[in-house]
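seq:
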Amino acid sequence: MKFVRYILFFIAITSILPAWAQRSDYQPEFTVGVKGGTTLSRVSFTPTVTQSLLLGYTGGVSVRYIEEKYFGLIAEVNFTQCGWNETFEEDPYTYNHTLNYITVPFLTHFFFGNRVVRGFINAGPQVGFLLGDSYESNFDVNNLPEFSQKSKVKDIYTMDIAHKIDYGIMAGAGIEFRIKKNHGIVLEGRYYYGLGDIFNNRKKDVFSASHNQIITVSLGYLYHF
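struct:
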């Protein structure tokens, strides 16, 4: 399974490389931007942890270069919140765990439309660097209550995040509106699937898989040089 993840990550990286080799008479575009938005996230655990989506936020800066008609490249640096919000069925307990990352996506940018209104699709790899994490709970994680759901993975409440670097693949779509000559507004939705685990996944460990999954909705401003 881990080998398959590495292969998928390699494919995502190499998918952006052909753009560097392509050239045409298309008038190049260079754009910088800022954005902010909301994240909805969970962690895919094996064994399963019952959960709902955790609400967070994201924001950052981007650089976009287009030299081919309908095709370009994007690099970003973002602050991204993600994690999981555990559910407890009939028990009156709450627990959520937030992970704060600096994320760096490298994306292939496919667009269509005209200079005023464009639709687009972005896809490529992302690397994240954990800044820190925190949790909120209405029970003592060091003195656990009796849960009615007997399948609860109780070790999760006191486990430290083992891997500070996250990596995975991202895809998204959106629409861009050009305002006057040099200004633009972008609305975009993205989905990120982590290929790495946040906890150790050896046979003796609690989880064999723990992948970040993040939905992002953002609004951004672009300046066209």
